TrEMBL record:
Protein name: Adenine phosphoribosyltransferase
Secretion signal, residue range per the UniProt entry: none
CDD domains, sorted: PRTases_typeI (cd06223)
Assembly notes: Homodimer.
GO CC annotations, alphabetized: cytoplasm
Molecular function as annotated in GO: adenine binding; adenine phosphoribosyltransferase activity; AMP binding
EC number(s) from the headed UniProt entry: 2.4.2.7
Length: 193
């Protein structure tokens, strides 16, 4: 893959060189986890201190809402667990893990949804969100939006409020971001699906 496949969005406090550098570390793996999927691997960012700093700086810069309107950062398993706590710490907020089914002790709140390649469920601990808390949901990538919509539903089931969504990568040509139009959303870069 060439960096021309990735378009880093213009951010207020992150230089074009830094955003292009971040984009250059994203790896494309065709045919994973099945032949019809193109996997976007952003894990190489975390093996580099400069890239990790740029990622968190960029996420703060691109927040879809004001920091004062966020109480918790919720990271989706698994890659949202890598940068979600870093973002929460930077903003002085708590972190909430949204786990795949069967990873948390009961009682839990769960939500099932369809993936591009099957069905899945996510869960949070029953008392993880206090009523009325405003939750920013973060993940590495938005494709069809199934996981993101399920995360919004689980926050609402827990009587929380969805403050918005923050993604590292937005796949173009798929309606995932459009399906979240009721919420403030941001992404750092776009890539073709």
């Amino acid at each position: 893959m060439t960096t021309t496949d990735i378009t880093a969005k213009s951010l207020r406090t992150v230089s074009k060189d830094d955003s292009d550098y971040l984009a250059s570390l994203i790896r494309t793996v065709p045919g994973f986890p099945n032949p019809h999927i193109i996997f976007r691997d952003f894990l190489p960012i975390f093996s580099n201190a400069r890239a990790s700093r740029i990622l968190v700086d960029s996420l703060v810069d691109a927040l879809p809402t004001e920091p004062d309107s966020i109480d918790l950062i919720a990271g989706l398993e698994a890659r949202g667990f890598l940068f979600g706590p870093l973002l929460a710490e930077r903003l002085g907020k708590g972190f909430l893990a949204i786990r795949k089914a069967g990873k948390l002790p009961p009682p839990v709140i769960s939500e099932s949804y369809m993936l591009e390649y099957g069905q899945a469920s996510i869960e949070i601990e029953n008392d993880a969100i206090k009523p009325g808390q405003r939750v920013l949901i973060v993940d590495d990538l938005i494709a069809t939006g199934g996981t993101a919509k399920a995360a919004a539903n689980i926050v609402k089931k827990a009587k929380g409020q969805v403050a918005g969504f923050s993604f590292v990568i937005e796949l173009t040509g798929i309606s995932g971001m459009n399906d979240l139009e009721d919420y403030p959303c941001s992404s750092l870069m776009t890539m073709p699906a």
